[in-house]
Amino acid sequence: MDSLDLKHAKSVLIELCKEGTVKKSYLFSIVKSHQVLDNLLESLQKDEYLTIQESKIGPKKYSISLTPKGRVVAENLAHLKENSIRITEGLVSEIEKVIKRDKSHSSVEEYVNEAVRKAIEKWKREHAVG
């Protein structure tokens, strides 16, 4: 699985695109768990979307920034987010309840993407569109 498919990956990249270089602690506003954030950052770094610089002096502090590849991806993600359809909070809550019960999707985004894809395929079949 590509690191972009991980929960919070897109949000982290978009935030880095807006803010530039940030301290690791800044990203806790997006990812609340230290372990989840560490795993996410490690995966994004491995896939060359970002770099992590450790301070050389004093207590360990980490600065996170996008690579050129990461910047291109983040800019495109930000553009898509700006032009995306907004889903009401009530609908998001209902989708989250379904996901918790049937565990077939890992996120609301995944659930909605699959539902839209299926609806488009059905429409194409019904309207004989290639």
Please indicate the count of domains.
2
Share of β-strand residues: 5-15%
Please give the alpha-carbon distance between the first and last residues: 30 Å
CATH architecture of the largest domain: Orthogonal Bundle
CATH domain class name of the largest domain:
Mainly Alpha
Element order, helices and strands?
A: HEHEEHHH
Please characterize this protein's 3D structure.
This protein is mainly α. The protein folds into 2 domains: 3-82, Arc Repressor Mutant, subunit A, CATH 1.10.10.10; 89-127. 56% of the residues lie in helices and 9% in strands. The chain contains 5 helices and 3 strands. The chain has helices spanning 9-19, 34-46, 68-82, 89-102, 108-127, and strands at residues 22-23, 50-54, 62-66. Strands 1-3-2 form a 3-stranded antiparallel β-sheet. The longest helix is centred in the C-terminal third of the chain and has 20 residues, at 108-127. The radius of gyration is 18 Å and the shape is elongated. It starts with 8 loop residues before the first helix and ends with a helix. The mean pLDDT is 86.
